[in-house]
Amino acid sequence: MEAKVNNSRISLARGDITEEATDAIVNAANSRLIGGGGVDGAIHRAGGPEIMAECRKIGGCPAGGAVITTAGRLKAKKVIHTVGPIYKDGKHQEAELLASAYFSSLKLAVDHGLKSISFPSISTGAYGYPVEDAAEVALKAVISFLSANKGIDLVRFVLFSDADLKTYAGVLKKLT
Ligand code: ADP
Questions:
Q1: In sequence order, which residues have a C-beta less than 8 Å from that of residue 17 and are 6 or more positions away?
Q2: What are the 10-residue block averages of pLDDT along the chain, 176 residues in total?
Q3: Are 2 and 10 in contact, with CB atoms under 8 Å apart?
């Protein structure tokens, strides 16, 4: 499924984010930038040790922020590591922090001249954010960023399951 916002495209696909050939792929990292499971483990395994070496130098990143490193041997040019919120009950700034994770990643991409970017479903794995709510926050944040900023041609969401793809597609349809 696809949608247009200004001159940019948002596209949804099912797949493995480590195989994306967009300029940037986004990692759902933890705040110490030390390897975890899920997307993070997959990116470090596929991209090789260069990525972790840069993460160690950077040292950490607060929830809602983002940092950028090499993509090692991945097809993408850069990996943007963002830290989503750990979901408690929805009353601990989770939505604000999740939106900020998307904004910070997009801003970093623009600052580095990267024109296409692939996101996983941040915070909806180990961090427990309900997928439908997270999809709404994620897509609203991306639409709002693309409405206000130039520089990004393509934003892809690469969802790991058919169920997640369906959820994101339903929300995107509602919002556009
Ligand atoms: P978080 O800690 O932010 O919740 P996770 O990595 O645990 O991050 O999960 C985020 C989402 O990414 C989950 O939906 C998970 O199924 C999905 N995921 C895991 N591996 C991959 C991958 N290789 N490509 C795309 N999505 C993935």
A1: 25, 26, 39, 42, 43, 118, 119, 120, 158
A2: 95 98 98 93 98 98 98 98 98 98 98 98 98 98 97 98 98 96
A3: yes
Q: Whole-angstrom distance between the N-terminal and C-terminal Cα of the chain?
A: 12
Residue nearest to atom 1 of ligand 1 (CA): 123
Domain boundaries, the chain: 2-175
Give Cα separations from 113 to 23, 77, 153 (angstroms).
9, 11, 11
Would you say the CB of residue 167 lies under 6 angstroms from ligand 1?
Answer: no
pTM for this prediction: 0.98
Report strand pairing: 66-70 vs 78-83.
antiparallel
- For the Cβ of 25 lying below 6 angstroms from any atom of ligand 1, the answer is no
- Which of these CATH numbers, 3.40.220.10, 1.10.1470.10, 2.60.120.560, 3.30.70.360, describes 2-175? 3.40.220.10
